[in-house]
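Re-running the complex after MR caught last week's input typo. The corrected sequence lines follow. Everything else is unchanged.
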Amino acid sequence: MEALAALVAALTLQAGWNASLVALGAGMLGLAAGGAGAFLFLRKRALVSDAASHATLPGVAAAFLVMVAFGGDGRFLPGLMLGSAISAGLGLALVAWITRATRLAEDAAIGAVLSVSFGLGIVLLTVIQIVPAGKAAGLEGFLLGSTAGMLQSEAVTIAVAGAIAAALVFALRRPMTLVAFDPEHAEATGVGVWRTDLAMMGVALLVTVVGLKIVGLVLIVALLIIPPVAARFWTDRVSTLALLATAFGGVAGYVGAAISSIEARLPTGPIIVLAAFAIFAVSFLVSPRRGVLAALLRRRRLEARVHLRQGLLALARGEAVYDRLTLRLLLARGWIRRDGAMTEAGRAAAAAAALDEARWSLARRLLPEAGVAERYDGLTPIGESLTPDQIARIDRGLARPEALA
Amino acid sequence: MIEEILSPEFVMISLPPMLVGLLACLACALPGNFLLLRRQALIGDAISHVALPGIVLAFLLTGTVAAWPMLLGAGAAALVAVALIEAVRRLGRIESGAAMGVVFTALFAAGVLLLERSDASSVHLDVQHALYGNLESLIWFDAMGWGSLLDPAALATLPEAAPRLAVVLVAIALLTRLFWKELALTTFDPAHASAIGLPTGLIGAGLAAATAVAAVAAFDAVGSIIVIAMFVCPPAAARLMTDRLGRQVAWSLVFAAISAIGGYVLAGYGPGWFGRPDAVSAAGMIAVVAGAILAAACLAGPRRRRAGATAA
Amino acid sequence: MRLLESFAARSPLSQALPASARPPLAQGPERGAGATPAPDAAADAPLCVRGLTVAYGGKPAVFGVDATLPAGSMTAIVGPNGAGKSTFLKGALGVIPRVAGEATVFGKPFARARHRVAYVPQRASVDWDFPALAEDVVMMGLYPRMGLFRLPGRRHRETARACLARVGMEAFAERQIGQLSGGQQQRVFLARALAQDADLYLLDEPFAGVDAATETVLVSVLQSLRDAGRTVACVHHDLSTVAAYFDRVLLLNGARIAEGPVAETFTEANLQAAYGGRLATAGLAAPGAIPATPAGSPPAPPPGAAAR
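Corrected-run output:
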């Protein structure tokens, strides 16, 4: 109960100034990440951002060294963010260059840039350990994010940068939707694909950089990927998907940060990621459109229809049915008895199926212009596809087959 | 330099991490070749991330930090992750990169949370260790010099990561050799492979399992960063050197070995050349050397460009 | 519904049903076991498909198809785009899962007769950037007969070279597969099928996007296979060459429209049924097709003239 009260307090921004700022910042960050991620996802670039986020590490370390070398405070957050943005941008450029200039595929380029720049970052971190001022740099906090003990100025920086990222996504939503939906059309209407892609990567970069302090560079990619994937289960429309992904990201960021503020041992980054994953898991299972349960049901229904239909047609020809599933389905409908003989209802159903099949077959010859061939799927009753007049014409043909020959 | 290599200190302090690093790099680069050709280079990334929750769970279940339970836990987590990625990809009809991103980040987050909620952090199990290993801490205390390599009693005290990785490397090399044809065919033309009756799904799962074993065995000693770098960089550089599969694999092993040895030497002795007594992270430096080799291959590899005539 | 009653009254109703509406799920187990002689000779034909149904995403792409390829024949599998021609082949071979139906190869389930089948998928399905030379690809055709754990040796390389020579590609044996032109790649894949030394050759769109010289080579190699008693079937797009290249036709459009010798089956009526109104509007006139009313329409050109 106490935890619940604390959660309610955190969710309603009653848990202290810093915690509220962090929650708001994480919410903004989530909004921006979901929105930018939606476009990355639609352009099939989801994991490119993973290369970018790992490539921030050498930038952070280098920025620290540079600031210390000039006698400043190595932990000055905006400086670290600038450094990380530069090296992440370099990392993205490298991924693009490797894919363009060599035969290596994008996944290899991502893996290479990700691991090598991360390795370089680790090397630089150990260099910082050597430098006198670096002993207590605490830059490891950027690996997994840490909001505990955050300075108020840092919280403000994050909230502001998160708001800027969210605003950018909002401002860019139209060109990004156009490009994601149909790049060629977008190019033709004057929305530069290249420019938009660049802007999109820029927003993703901003999200990554802002997210470093909250979520950490290892997990920030989750905020860009999971919300759009979850949204994909609910809609087929680009604009709805972007909207949903933005909302999912915002909810995950805000709720995750609020939950983690309840207690010290609830690390912010992982909690936010797991909140996003919970949204995904629910979508994956129960979405009526693409969810797993719905798909399973549809598959079962189709199988039943196919087997029933083929079973009926076999019965209509007076052939015995051996397929177990078919027998079970026919029995369940009361169309055959346990000994395999047709019931009265079964005879009627078999005749109806045979007639339907015969009509379809003749329709293909008699009414080529009606696109019969495309509509036939072996399951749909002909009455749902053709008009009564057309069926009457077919039936006249069926009644006098010799007249057709 | 020669004098240094001949000294007992070298055998005691430098040889074990070099040997472990070398074995780890070779064990990862070998399956990495097929992952690269299957456009699954990032599976190694995913697997090495999900090793963390596996290790933490193994610790929570057994209460010890012994190597084998942790290896088993990490291996199990890797297989669960691969199965989950396949499930999201097929059942949810989500592009494989995105499916991977969903699964491995969520599992890694769960691992970090578990670690934070348990007492594991007090027993030398932490995220930094998981990310960049502790290559430098591998010391062969009983080594008296190069002669110890012939002394069974001294050999028995080699850091246990070395024999473990040697076993893993031999097993992976043997499996690669035995199923060479099947690996090549299912990678090149899966439709034909399944038409002639090869169990393509099983072979894919076997490759994923070998990847997981390599990642997990190497990860404990050298951290996930080398693992990811070795799955991708040496095979990618090797692909740019030749148009034949056998030669590509050979090149990748050479590159992996150069990265391992070169990276360790640069990290351990490099700062000394600049008059500094300290060393930098060997794991990080090995990844950097692998990256440098890949960069060179990208700029000058004889087969770096895509074939001019592509399919219509 | 007088018609319905008449359908119910007649039993069995098979005479009233066109061939395409006969998906006999009712495969007696005795057919496979051979306890009772099969009613038709189709049972141990090179390929015998019964009631094949394959669905993509909840909609059947191929529905209740029956087909039989007799030994020593060369069959064109023809139908409009999206008619399920490739799906039919993949479903028959079990490369993709079936919703219903079954297929036998030389009287056995496909899994037990794989070594007698060479399947050439559409070219798009392989990785052109793979580090393999043309001869390496052809050697892959020898894998099933090499046994587990063996690596290809000099003898296998020589066999592969001989197969490449049969399709006129010996000069390109050491080219990386992606560096070949589309037609050359298709020849390499036919060479791989030759290396399999199969009795049944199934090819998915072998002539798509290849040059005229390659088409000639492919056809003559396939016809020589047929003349040697092997069985060949190709998914085929170009109606104008059906009569010149093939001796049998399987017309598909989701369901089977017609199947049989070209002379009887490749008729305008059947094509109309398969292609619907699109045949005329798309200008897809089929010179090889037998007109519905031979007396009233211009005579079909001789088969030879149809080849481009």
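None of the earlier attempt is carried over here. The radius of gyration of chain B is 20 Å. Residues 59 and 65 of chain B are 6 Å apart (CA to CA).
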